[in-house]
Write a structure and sequence with these properties.
With 438 residues, this protein is an alpha+beta fold. The chain has three domains: 2-254, Spore Coat Polysaccharide Biosynthesis Protein SpsA, Chain A; 268-319, no CATH class; 338-434, Sandwich (Jelly Rolls), CATH 2.60.120.10. Helix content is 21%, strand content 37%. It contains ten helices and 30 strands. The chain has a six-stranded antiparallel sheet. Strands 8-11-9-10-12 form a five-stranded mixed barrel. A four-stranded mixed sheet has the order 14-16-18-19, covered by helices on one side. A hairpin with a 5-residue loop joins strand 9 and strand 10. The longest helix has 16 residues, at 122-137. It is globular. 36% of the residues are buried.
Length: 438
């Protein structure tokens, strides 16, 4: 299979665990058999490889998510990076050009596009294979997945098929309706539109050239900011005549809110937390190293992270976004391709950060114009590169870098350190990168 996973959005409805860098699909909240936790994107990638070990997976995403993807999935996964946010049609067109020109996927090979963040089981990926096989037949230009609705939802668009066959021609599409209208659609045999579809690569490349002007992947990447903001549904799906739908009756959940996310959690508490016996339907997700105690609560979610603390009725948690949009908050936690960092303290002229580097990784070789830095190694071993000078480091070592000094650190083992930034104008943009000549 050739799969394009759409990974976008900031996921503010799952604040405080999500932010502009750490979207909801990167939150490690699902417990595995070995007791460790995995994120939505890790879970989906693992499930794909379980069903089809040879699947070619490309993630279409923004540049702010690239480091987190490499951190969680490694460097083998393909990534089609959007230089800026447009909409789903330019994103899919760019990913298709990436498959053709970078991955050298054949023009007659089928491609499946799906969101990266639904909660699904293995039968979903078998359905993706079926969707791919149907697209390869060439009976239709597009083959959609139609999800059997379990209730009349206002959150999804609807697909109305011509028949009740497993594979059927599409009669029409309906926008997100009211509950009453959704009930009427379902009585007509309507299916949820989950944004999953398949096509031959040739079809999408040709359709892209019809609607936008570019020559190849590199050209589209360089002119991406000039492309129109338009959804794939509006640009392609609703105007296509040769279109089919395949039914999917398995478990499928859109985990876009705390209410739906906690429904998929296998346990009530992640992190340090305690519920007394009077609590019912209460979930605690705590990323802080302090205990959280809940007593006598019902239908509540409590979430704590370096970004903030949420205590909410589960139903009300769906309306969190307008409040979070008003927050002006320093990014307090982020996963990078080399590891992760957590901001511990922010003062007017200093910032203190705990940094964890994964074995075999290093930061970029860089300098800062307006700040000095001090590293205190807490655990592990590695090597510092300061203005070209190499020094082995271990727990207890202290390294100082003045403004303008070029520096990085390489982790031989997992390396934990405290970074203290000192200056009058500390800014994430105050960074110049260099090539490191060893």
């Amino acid at each position: 299979m050739n799969l394009i996973l759409l990974s976008g959005g900031s996921g503010k409805r799952l604040w405080p665990l999500s932010n502009d860098i750490r979207s909801k699909q990167f939150i490690k909240i699902f417990k595995k058999e070995d007791g460790t936790y995995e994120s939505m994107v890790q879970r989906m990638y693992r499930q794909i490889k379980k069903v089809d070990a040879d699947a070619t997976v490309t993630i279409a995403t923004s540049k702010t998510q690239v480091s987190a993807i490499h951190n969680q999935l490694g460097s083998d996964v393909g990534i089609s990076v959007e230089p800026c946010r447009r909409d789903t049609f330019p994103a899919i067109a760019l990913a298709a050009a990436y498959l053709k020109d970078v991955m050298h996927v054949g023009m007659d090979e089928p491609v499946v596009v799906c969101p990266v963040d639904p909660y699904v089981n293995d039968d979903y990926f078998e359905a993706l294979k079926s969707l791919s096989d149907q697209a390869e037949k060439g009976e239709a230009n597009l083959v959609l997945m139609g999800i059997e609705p379990t209730y009349p939802s206002e959150k999804y668009g609807y697909i109305i098929p011509m028949s009740k066959d497993f594979t059927a021609d599409v009669k029409t599409f309906k926008e997100k309706p009211s509950v009453e209208v959704a009930e009427e659609y379902i009585s007509q045999g309507a299916l949820w539109n989950g944004g999953v579809f398949a096509f031959k690569l040739r079809y999408l490349i040709e359709k892209s050239h019809e609607l936008i002007s570019y020559t190849d992947y590199a050209d589209l990447f360089n002119t991406y900011g000039e492309q129109p903001k338009i959804s794939f549904d509006y640009a392609v799906v609703e105007k296509e005549d040769k279109i089919q739908v395949q039914r999917f009756a398995g478990e499928w959940k859109d985990l876009g809110t705390w209410n739906t996310l906690t429904e998929a959690m296998s346990e009530s508490i992640i992190g340090k937390g305690t519920l007394n016996e009077e609590c019912s339907n209460v979930h605690i997700v705590n990323e802080m190293d302090v205990p959280v105690l809940a007593m006598g609560l019902h239908d509540v979610v409590i979430s704590a992270s370096p970004e903030g603390i949420l205590v909410s009725d589960k139903e009300q948690s769906s309306y969190i976004k307008p409040f979070v949009d008003k927050f002006e908050q320093q990014i307090m936690f982020a996963e990078k391709s080399w590891g992760s960092y957590k901001v511990m303290d922010v003062e007017e002229k200093s910032m203190t950060i705990k940094v964890t580097l994964n074995p075999g990784h290093s930061m970029n070789y860089h300098s800062h114009k307006n700040r000095d830095e001090v590293w205190v190694v807490l655990d592990g071993t590695g090597r510092t590169f300061v203005d070209g000078m190499v020094q082995s480091v271990k727990a207890g070592d202290v390294i100082t870098m003045s403004a303008g000094c070029r520096h990085t650190i390489f982790a031989d083992t997992e390396l934990k350190l405290i970074e203290v930034q000192l200056g009058k104008a500390i800014s994430v943009s105050d960074k110049q990168k260099f090539e490191l000549e060893l």
